[in-house]
Amino acid sequence: MNRPTDTAAGPSGSATGPSGGFLAEVKDAVTARAALLVLGVLALQLAFITSYIGAFHHPQPSEIPLAVTTPVAQLTERSVKQLGELPGKPLDPRAVKDEATALRQIKNREVDGALIVDPGGTTDRLLVAGGSGAALSQALEQVVGLTEKAQGRTVRIVDVAPSAAGDGRGLSSFYLVVGWCVGGYLCAAILAISAGARPANSARAVIRLGALLLYSIAAGLLGAVIAGPVLDALPGSILGLWGLGTLVVFAVGAITLAFQGLAGVVGIGLAILLVVVFGNPSAGGAYPYPLLPPFWKAIGPALPPGAGTYAARSIAYFKGNDMAPSMLVLAGWAVLGSAVTLACAIFHKGRPGAAVGSGLPDPAPDLETGPDPAEGAGR
Asked: Average of pLDDT values for 35-50?
């Protein structure tokens, strides 16, 4: 009777061969590349915690634009001077001709509120815009109210652009844009890794951008419908919100594809760093820009979440006024992301391979040089 022959040990030391011990099992289970990626995830997580707590833990009003008017020019100038000299400069007051001018500036998003002083009485009116965010309106009420009280006067609050009944604290615009951003980078990440790590050629890059555009159109429409007619959270033009959503999703997705083209899988983490870690806390959602620390206040309008949130509030509550700069920011990110994605596909080609879905195998890698180091960066 023939004796059974021994088989070679498997790479992890299975029952068919001797084990290399626990250390060998660890090295086999967690490669050096995986360990580096895990450390990267840890760094991203800590950055996430630091950014949100750093931006939100101590909101302070700083130079909130405030229109001031009275029937007497000298009294108006004196009121502006007093409000401008408050400790910490919480307000940025400016004199306006009359109440109609002040109201127009609020509607145009040139100022965040207006103080209408009545020299013939002891009660003034403070015009606010709840649609810009409840935290901002409350900050104005507190600062102006304390100032008026110190002068033996009272103030009556008038909300001239109130948030919708279903828009709790004016946050629906922010959460809608965050949802669009999440969809943008997740869609792009799936497109980038769905067919393996083989680098994309220019045709595949164009196809991916086209697929991302179709997804963006659908995501923009569905998000606008949910926030508007379905949940009754945001008023304003559905077409306007649809267009904004399409641009937000595509811009974030294009950024993600661009980073993936430059840095491979790590690029997805870089996109999350830009959009989530830096973009969300500085978006002016929970705390509008005048309440954020200087760093977050400075970068917010230049990033997709901040530009999207500002534009969404403009559409919902201010008839689209002052949204053009935000739309230009989003368009700039979309164009830049698309251009970098195409450039990476053209100038960082890896080894050629069969078309995805053809069922044909790729050629074997060169044994001397190994696989192309760019592999995984553009696919």
From this structure: 90
